[in-house]
Amino acid sequence: MGKITGFMEYERIEEGYKPVTERLKNYKEFVIGLDDAQANKQAARCMDCGTPFCNSGCPVNNIIPDFNDMVFRADWKNAIDTLHSTNNFPEFTGRICPAPCEAACVLNVNDDAVGIKSIEHAIIDRAWSEGWVKPQLPKHKTGKKVAVVGSGPAGMAAAQQLARAGHEVTLFEKNDRIGGLLRYGIPDFKMEKIHIDRRVEQMQAEGVIFRTGVMVGKLPKDSKVTNWAKETIAAEQLQKTLMPSS
């Protein structure tokens, strides 16, 4: 626990916003993340609970008290390593997650919850700016091939973890770009698409093969799902597609 009395000394600090006059000139993100001093005070509010309900409130079980303490101590490098141990893409969740961890925060019982989402946002933005987010190549190759269908955040995370385990991974996406709803369902002012693009570059360096414009299986006749695929592969054909011809 970074500061035992922090939650009594400091109030919750909200992220800032760019002026309306500036926002009107573009469609880009307008949230201003915490600076180092603000992040330090925000992290100091964490009570290091004996039972940290924020962990179970988080859908990916982020180790929240630990990275809060590291931010309080300005140990940003270990903070991002801890965050990445449970979350492949904290720049996504740090921007668009509804933060159920904050609803579960014990401090939320009779005070304002710790700004966990803003701390996560600060950690990953610091990691990118410092060049700490790099491809993680497997120590050995398994010789096995895996197909992942769909390039939303779940598909991207699965593909990344499988590639890091040493498998040869091909990620299929029916649309013309990677990202699923991250790209086509979330506007730029909530999350600019550069965050997706640089993760794609990282994953390509890790060995993931991306195939866009490929529909695996088929949609029902009355489906209203947009399908930009230029190629269709039956599910049973995937194995033949991935295996070299003899």
How would you sum up this structure in a few lines?
With 246 residues, the protein is of the alpha/beta class.
Major sheet attributes: 3 strands, parallel
- Counting DSSP H or I runs of 4 or more residues, the number of helices is 13
In CATH, the homologous superfamily of the largest domain goes by the name Alpha-helical ferredoxin
Order of helices and strands: HEHEHHHHHHHEHEHHEEEH
CATH domain class of the largest domain: Mainly Alpha
Number of strands: 7
Residue share in helix: 40-55%
Residue runs with pLDDT of under 50 for 5 or more positions: none
What strand order characterises the main sheet? Answer: 3-4-5
Secondary-structure content class = alpha/beta
In round numbers, the mean pLDDT is 94
Q: What is the CA-based Rg, rounded?
A: 21 Å
Shape estimate = globular
- The CATH topology of the largest domain is Fumarate Reductase Iron-sulfur Protein, Chain B, domain 2
Second rung of CATH, namely the architecture of the largest domain: Orthogonal Bundle
Question: How would you sum up this structure, described in words?
Answer:
The protein folds into two domains: 6-130, Alpha-helical ferredoxin (Fumarate Reductase Iron-sulfur Protein, Chain B, domain 2); 145-242, FAD/NAD(P)-binding domain (3-Layer(bba) Sandwich). The chain is 41% helix and 10% strand. It is built from 13 helices and seven strands. The chain has helices at 6-9, 20-23, 36-44, 53-57, 64-72, 76-84, 90-96, 100-104, 116-130, 153-164, 181-184, 194-205, 238-242; strands at 16-17, 31-32, 145-149, 168-173, 209-212, 214-216, 231-233. Helix 3 packs across helix 5 and helix 6 crosses helix 9. The N and C termini lie far apart (60 Å). The mean pLDDT is 94.
